[in-house]
Fold:
Amino acid sequence: MNFAFSEDTLALKELVQKFIRDEVEPFANQIEEQNAIPPHLVKTAKEMGLFSLSIPEEYGGLGLDMVSKCAVLEELAKTHNGFTTLISCHIGIGSVGIVEFGSPAQKEKYLPRMATGEWIGAFALTEPSAGSNAVNLKTTAVRKGDKYILNGSKHYITNAHDAHVFTVMAVTDPTKGAKGISSFIVEKGTPGFEVGAPEKKLGLRGSNSAELFFENVEIPAENLLGLEGTGYVNALKILANGRAGMAARCLGSSQKLLEHSMQHATEREQFSQPIFNFQAIQHMLADMAMQIEALRALTYRVAWMVDQGTRVVKEAAMAKLYGSEVYNRVADTALQIHGGLGYMKDYPIERYFRDARITRIYEGTSEIQRNIIASELGREYHNKKGVNV
Structure:
C-alpha cells in the first residue's frame, strides 16, 4: 500500500498551494461578505485544469487517480470552502456518473466541455420526501417514443445556478422500488426545466444551492445514463467513491485549523507567556493533531482501495463519517483556543466552524453512514460464516 505521490501530483499540489495563497485567500472575506465567487478565480481554476481532475485524458482531462485527486482536494480545502465546493462537486458527483456510466456518445458530447469547465456539473438526487430515504423519489420519467418526460422537483442541489449539466435521478417504474429508478443527463435551458432561488445557508457562502423544477421536460432517450432501472445503484456507487474526496476535504480544512491554532497559541500571550505553554492548550493541540493523522491514514487508504478497484462501501462510509466528525471537533477546539477572536467574522475560524457542520449532513448523513457500516459488517459476517444476521 503506497501513498507516495507522483512527481506530477506533487507539482500540482505546489501549484494549488501557490494559487490558494496568492489568489484565493486574499478574496476569502469578499466571498463571505458577498456570497459570490469572483469570476476571475473560477477562470484561473479552469485554466489550471482544476475542473478536469476526474475527466479521462482522452476527453481533455487530467485523469487523476483517486489518491492524486484527494491530494489536490486536501490542498483546496485549506481555503474558502464555498470556492472549494464549486470545484469538488463538479469533479465528484457532478461528473463521475458520466465518466463511469456514460455511453461513448455521451462522453464525447459532455466530458470535453466539462474538462475545461465550460460546462459545470451537478448531481440531483435529493427531494423533499427523499433525503436519507433516497428510494422515496417522486420525480418521474415516462418513456414516450424516443423521449422521456420528466416531472417533479429536487432540492438542496449544489452548483444549481452554475451547472450546465445535471445528473438527475427519476422513477421510471414505480412498481419496482429501487430497481425502478433511472438516471438522466439534463442540460441547462431545456424547456420546462427551471432553477429556483438560491438557498440561504449557515455556511459554504459562495457555493449556491437551489431547488430544481421539472414540468413536462422532454429528454432525448439517448440521455438515459446507463441502463433503465440502474439509477439508484449507480447513485450509490457515485456517492461511495466520492466519499474519499469528502474525507480529503475534511482533512485539509482540519489541517488548516491546526496551523491557525498553532500560530495563535505561540503568539497569544496571557500571564506573561504564550498560551502554548499551558498544558490545557497543549492537550487540545495534541488531540487535534492525533485525529488529523488518523483521518489522513484512513482517507488515503480508501483512496488507494478505489484505485485498486476494490469494493469500498464500508471503508468510504467510515472515511466520510470520521472525516466529518474530526473536522467538526477540530473546528470547535480551534475556536476555543482562539477564544473571542475565533468568534469574530474578521478571522477565518468562525467561517470554518460554520462550514464544518454541513459535512455531517450532505452526501449521506452521519446516521446513514453508520447504517451502511453496520450493513456491510453484517454482509461480511454472513459471507464468512454462512449465517443470517
